[in-house]
Amino acid sequence: MRVDIQSLGTYNRLAQEGAEHAAASLTEMTGIETYVDVTNVTLMSKRDVEDVFGGTAFVGVQIGVGGGLSGETALAFDRESAASIVDVLVPGATAGDDDEFDDMARSGISEIGNIMMGGFVDGWADYLSTNVDMTPPTYVERDGTDVLPEGALARAKEEHVFVFESQMTAVDEEIDAYIYMLPEYGTFAEMLEASDDHDDAIPMDKLTVFDEMTRQGAERAAENVSSMTGIETDVDVSRLSFVPIEDVPNTTRDEVYLGTVMEFKGTPGGYLAILFDEPSARTIVDATVPMELDEPLGDMGESAIQEMGNIMTSGFIDGWANVLQTSIDHTPPELVHDLGTAILSPIAGRLGQSQEYAFLMDSTVVTPEGEFNCEIYAIPDEQKLKEALDALLVERSDQLEANRESLF
């Protein structure tokens, strides 16, 4: 089956607009000005969904949807954000001795959750010209993926699932809210299906293979880190997101990174950014430079990071090239030291001259002890990605699995 990129873009916009309606409802009911930070459509393996949620403690509501759009949705606040909202929405409501919200607080969260999710779903119903039914909200206080409707991942028949994710942030307060929607895979895939003669279509089965190929490239890069530093590493999260090109810079955390950026050419073409936050960069420098430096992030430290970025780039690109059975040329990695948004903005600007959306492939390399965190962003040229997928034989997924097993 082939996916229509324009349709995928339309549904991304619907999710964005729905999240904006939800944020407006939160602002109206609480007086806390809220905006939508980023909305994306992500294709992830089930295990990576679990990694993304981690063990974060959430408070929120679960709502099932049916009719024109079938699936599961959840509105989730981290616990501190939920407490701030309850203080405004339901004065006098408190958390009980067992560290759970009392009945008044639960009722307030359920009410605002129902209203916010109603705003999120309405735009879908209008676009699909049909009713979208919602189940009554179910209040939840849970950790990680347990905030999702019970059994949502278990019921997914496919190894990969679509996840719509919107993050909302308050302007003047530390309040974050998240909307997650997991549409029923088969139904949603049919909504995205393109006609056979559609030039912009992407083959779905090959897209999932490419997602796994990206994880494999990240694992090879992580292996190179371990070889250079002696520090055990692992790929924590690897996912393929579909976002408007102008939102690509917003996918990074709001902090300063030190790392490398390079352009890869041919099929596929695009850009690769390997970014360490500053504490992680210091860890890398301490492990690779055989002397104590007065300035860990001075010239010698930056040179060490550039060399590490070069080695990780080779590992990542080799993982892709092995599956595509081709060589991938790339420019020498360029050292970057700036805010994440400032690093990715020029990339988005260059690609934005020829495409409206980006398939953003991001992976996170971590250590068991939390010594450092490295984020890898692969942002391919849309047309070159399509050409690569068209040339990729699905049968090569067997080779992909064989390559994966060779890593361990």
From TrEMBL:
> What UniProt keywords are attached to this protein's entry?
Chemotaxis, Hydrolase
GO MF annotations for this entry?
hydrolase activity
A Gene Ontology BP annotation from the UniProt entry = chemotaxis
Please give the Pfam families that the UniProt record associates with this protein: CheC (PF04509)
- Where does the CheC-like protein domain lie? 104-139, 300-336
Database matches in InterPro entries: CheC (IPR007597), CheC-like_sf (IPR028976), CheZ_family_phosphatases (IPR050992)
Under what name is this protein listed?
A: Chemotaxis protein CheA
Which organism is this entry from?
Haloplanus salinus
